[in-house]
Amino acid sequence: MEELKKLVKNHALGNPVRLGVMVFLIPRRKALFKDLLKVLEVTPGNLDFHLKILEKEGYVKIYKVFADRPRTIVEATDEGVAKTKEFLRTLMVLVSK
Amino acid sequence: MEELKKLVKNHALGNPVRLGVMVFLIPRRKALFKDLLKVLEVTPGNLDFHLKILEKEGYVKIYKVFADRPRTIVEATDEGVAKTKEFLRTLMVLVSK
């Protein structure tokens, strides 16, 4: 059951907000910070906290673009997409045994 | 994205230890408390805390059996199995879109 240990200790995805961010980003690849706020119904401070952890762990990149006003974009990295899919796949395999 | 909101707010499964407990129990249906401890590498107090939440939310039943000495058994409920599978299935669908 090494997989299960790893899942439980997975710092990046072992939180529903962070898992939710990745699940939302995967089919879109990127999203506006303000759209993530709406979708996940969390506060800006809370989302910011979780995004910093995902960024530190290499799951997302966060940057600003300037249209009429500055917008924060959150983009899933290739590595983040791969790791999240692998995380979910492992869970599915474990419950299907 | 109502599914994603629900996932993020899912009190029972929105924690890696609790999700790990359910993922371990589903193929086995029940396990000894002491085996869960080993598999998940958590402390007894930590596991007990999370099991109480799962029990309160109807995901598991916890009871003692007496062999040579008392043993605590954790058993997944039908409802808990169904809800956990549904939770994982929804995540998979969301990332496959």
TrEMBL record, chains A, B:
Residues 5-93 form the HTH arsR-type domain. It holds the Pfam family HTH_34. One of its GO terms (molecular function) is DNA-binding transcription factor activity. Coiled coil: none annotated. InterPro entries: HTH_ArsR_DNA-bd_dom (IPR001845), WH-like_DNA-bd_sf (IPR036388), WH_DNA-bd_dom (IPR027395), WH_DNA-bd_sf (IPR036390). PANTHER family: BSL7504 PROTEIN. This is Transcriptional regulator. It comes from Thermococcus chitonophagus.
